[in-house]
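Example 3.2
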Amino acid sequence: MTAAQLRRRAKTRRAQTAGALLMIVFVAVNLRPAIATVGPVLTEIRGEFGLSGTAAGALTTLPLVVFGSYGLVAPFLRRPPRSETLLVTAMALLVAGLVLRLLDAPFPLFAGSLVAGIAISVGNIAMPAIIKRDHPTRITTVTAVYTLAVSGGASVTSGLAVPVEDAFDASWRLPLGLLAIPAALAALIWVPRARRAAHAARSAPPAAPAGGVAARVWRSRLAWQVTVFMGMQSLMAYVVLGWLPTICQDRGMDEAAAGYVLALTAAVQAAGSLAVPVIAARARDQRPLVIGTVVLTMAGFIGTVWAPIGTVWVWAVVLGLGQGLGFASALSFIGLRAHDAQVAAQLSGMAQGVGYVIAALGPLAIGALHDATNGWTVPIAAVLLVCAVMTLPGLAAGRNRSIGEPAPPQATEPAPKGVNAEISGHIPN
């Protein structure tokens, strides 16, 4: 093969990689706006339908409650759909949920939010398996791009909701309805690939039943360590999302400034996620990422609540960096700790299904502690305790091991003195 042919082949591979990343980004930017865009226009929605404070809160938390729903169902499916099919289905469901919310009645508003949450759940589960299968040597880098797109989609759409509404002199339905367009485009982009995958699956030998893989994953200690870390870092994110502006207002900031603190934290998460592949490339395993997540998150909470209020912007940046590291690391663990794509799909379902259930308890528990103590000292002390405990499953999940790795063949002769089982690199989970 000539040098020119080698260059053309390398150029083709780079173009294919860039195209694959772009397809991932198209889906990722749709996985949070359905939730993030409601907050800026929630006052209008409450006024139109006469919603109580509790009902308005349910409108924003309902999708979060079902974020991991598909992950809890997936292990019971005998033949789960292929990941490409799941992504197309997720985007189609998301379009349906977004359109349903535009109808002039409270029930479709809540039903559409529930459907959108389920759609996001399906997309959440499918994407890590695709990253593991298609980008096995660049898991942390591709996951960082994915998390950046997720965070960016939420940040941009929440920031543009009110300006778009004002620019067209429209109601809240316009910014929420426009979200259906990129979701529909993402579905259409993935349809050809889903068809090719389905055709390839028909001509390929039958895959092992998912039930056996699921049982192996759910019995794995390492899988539970990944799951608990995912749940705890998500709990921190939900606490920030639900209570950070209120904490800042209780410390004397006005409503707009408190909202900007949350926006700053969310924006900085992108930088935290992009730091993951840089740190991972210089470390033997992912434990430094866990340490960084815990230290930055704890420092951010402490500074936000107890440092002089004028420094809250600094601590918002620190908190955002910690949460960006945590989210990208947790998602990377799904691909890094799975031996193959089938295990990654099951681990993704388990980690996000159970993890988001754990996370959903955070804002409720913090709210209850705040009501019981009429202050933030006890609730934030509880958050710091959870953050410290998160170190244990995180460090265990950060070691270079894998779930579902075949056991090494038994030696026919005794091993030399001083050689132990860990030389093979296989550590029982």
